[in-house]
Amino acid sequence: MTPPKDFTAAVGSDMRASQRRVLFVTRRTSPQVKVYDEERVQTFSEVLIRALLAVECLLIGLVLMSLFFNAPLEGIANPTNTPNPAKAPWYFLGLQEMLHYFPPVVAGVLIPGLLIIALIVIPYFDINIEAEGFFLKNRQQRLMLSMIVAGSLSIFLWFFDVYVALAPTVIIAALMLLAAFSSPQSPGRLRRYLALRPIFWWIMTWFLFELIVLTAVGTFFRGPGWSWVWPWRS
Amino acid sequence: MPTMTTTTETHLVREGSELDRREFFTKLGLGSLGVATAGTLAFYYQYLSPNVLFEPSPIVNAGALDRYPLGSVTLDVNSAIYLVHLAEGYFSLSAICTHLGCMTAWKPELNMIACPCHGSRFSEEGQKLAGPAPRPLPWLKTWMSDDGELMVDRSVTIPQFQFLRV
Amino acid sequence: MPGTIETYFDKLERTRVWRSIFRSGKGTSTLHNALAIQQNVFLHLFPTKVRKRMLGLGATWYLGTLTLGTFIVLVVTGILLMLYYHPSVPRAYSDVKDLQFAVSSGLFLRNLHRWSAHAMVFLAFAHMFRVFYRGAYRAPREFNWVVGVFLLLVTLLLSYTGYLLPWDQLAYWAITVGTNISSAVPLIGDKIRFLLLGGHLVNANALLRFYVLHCVILPLTAVVFLAVHFWRIRKDGGLYVRESEPGAASHEQQSSNEEQKTR
Question: N or C: which end of chain B has fewer CB within 10 A?
Fold first, then answer.
């Protein structure tokens, strides 16, 4: 009599399509193995051709833009004359807008430094992994917490007259309030959508919203002496 | 089975001094590597800080006193300083905004100094009136030369309200 | 005569020289196509196969691919621009003026470089937000997200150092303001600014340092990080797919259908 084997082995059979899989199931357990094969395509040449096509489309756009619009070039650098207003490149205008309100240590060092650290640690925090709607569990507690955070942030921004950053914060807080009183069964697509958003979605969306608003304000709404101007009135 | 345990034990005992020696050499190696790294960093730092700079002299000759009538604020754009003559006497201010180094300008119609970059405003004595600038405009060392001309040292700041009385 | 060109290619691909360079051999079988990726030092960074539903425009919007595309455009146009540019004061400005008005196609190349730079910054940001909202930063892709954040920073630094090179008013004051921010760092701020500019003022030294950063140090850093970034996509299991997406469900149905057929 042969002793009972303490494992069973199985071999995947679609060898033409993908690599061979050898599966060992030990100790006579009966695990549920859900196997489905995704349809895959070869990188060479199908994916590469698609990537090339995408880049070509972009290149056509860039070439057309370069033919019709000239890159800006002002007078030679003159240390004795500061242009008014002196603006950084567009992707730093959000930062420059912050520099208008806060001292350089805060707006130029602390805020960007913390932002970079926050971006780096995103995947290492469990808060970013939980993908359930934020207000579906412990609704009252979580609503109170988020309103306290949003409220103190708003008061802080209001105190420093940063109305430009205050507006997106208030809008996001209002949307959170709406989400808290919605459920996946709510009428209206927006409410159903918001009810299912997890916490990291709210934080990132607030950040993205702030980024867009601050950059847009710095680009279009700031004139001489960093005063507020309406772009359509110039 | 018992024999096996004894052999491993003696083996471990013999390895003890071996491990100590190994650890010592590892520490020695890592330590010297650390010293070498620190030396390299110091080398880089020294190399990257230039010793000789071709930058304009900090001492400026601002010319005769009568160029600055009473109550006037004059900007010398080339040296980035204001020469101010008030009832209390003469003094000079740096024209570089203390916020982020933009060149400010005197606005006679507003009676204040304004920065074009982030909207800071200063009084004619350099006091901050508005905007994000963290400090007032610094007062610069000002004296009169033997020829009766105003001299300013841009590298030396003095306490505020030290007027040059003539 | 369409046949002739094909036969020429055929002959070329059979020559000893060709076969010594491309070892995957002739043919379009799965093996040949896999070898074409695997045996190429550049392409082997990529997986040999990609999930089909990741090819649709909606899955990635091709943002990463397009960012790489702008980077390649920037390298090519940048090298060409370097041939007419002296990083010295005030020569730099007149060189850029010459590029605009005296050099054949100089204006076009400078425009292309400038607009591609803006596009690259925008696409890198868009790529980051897209990856975030799809949740593609989750394990085992955490480290690749971090590499991506570094690449975003390198992109911003590349763009910022390039901003000074034309030596016009825009450049000068943007760099003056920007480097003064670095002097706001507590304790060592002024030292950082001094090292960055090679002096106390934005001057010829600063221009040369920014030039070296822009043309040598930062592009090399970017290339190294890019290689890691692509290689990690392969090592972390290919482009991220969400199991809850309709694509996965339909595949499950397909496989169960196949099972039924075999029964």
Answer: N
**Residue burial C14-32, b: 16+ Cβ < 10 Å; e: rest:** eeeeeeeeeebeeeeeeee
Distance CA(A151)–CA(B58), nearest Å, equals 50
Asked if B31 reaches chain C (Cβ–Cβ under 8 Å), the answer is: no
Compute the distance between CA of residue C112 and CA of residue C78 in angstroms, rounded to an integer: 10
| CB within 8 Å: B103 and A82 | yes
pLDDT bin (cut points 50, 70, 90) of residue C52 is: confident
Q: What mean pLDDT do residues A10-26 have?
A: 60
| Residue C255 pLDDT greater than 50, yes or no | no
Q: Is there a contact between C199 and B50 if contact means CB atoms under 8 Å apart? A: yes
Nearest by CB to residue B103, choosing from A80, A104, A225, is A80
Q: Does B112 touch chain A (CB under 8 A)?
A: no
8-state DSSP, A38: P
Nearest neighbour of C166 by CB, restricted to A39, A62, A73: A73
CA–CA distance, C168 with C93 (Å, rounded to integer): 7
**Residue A100 · residue A111 · CB < 8 Å:** no
Whether residues C168 and A38 touch (CB distance < 8 A) is answered with no
CB contact under 8 A, C115 and A66: yes
Rounded to an integer, the average pLDDT of B108-126 is: 86
CA atoms of C182 and C178, how far apart (whole Å): 7
Q: Which of C114, C79, C89 is nearest to C167 (CA)?
A: C89
Write down the H helix ranges in A18-138: 48-68, 93-101, 104, 111-121
* Assembly ipTM: 0.86
Q: Could you identify the residue written with the tokens 């979580």?
A: A142
Residue C210: pLDDT above 90? yes
User: Which residues, numbered 28 to 57 in chain A, qualify as contacts with chain C under a Cβ-Cβ cut-off of 8 Å?
Assistant: 35-48, 50-51, 54-55
The structure's pTM equals 0.85
Question: CA B66 to CA A40: how far, in whole Å?
Answer: 86
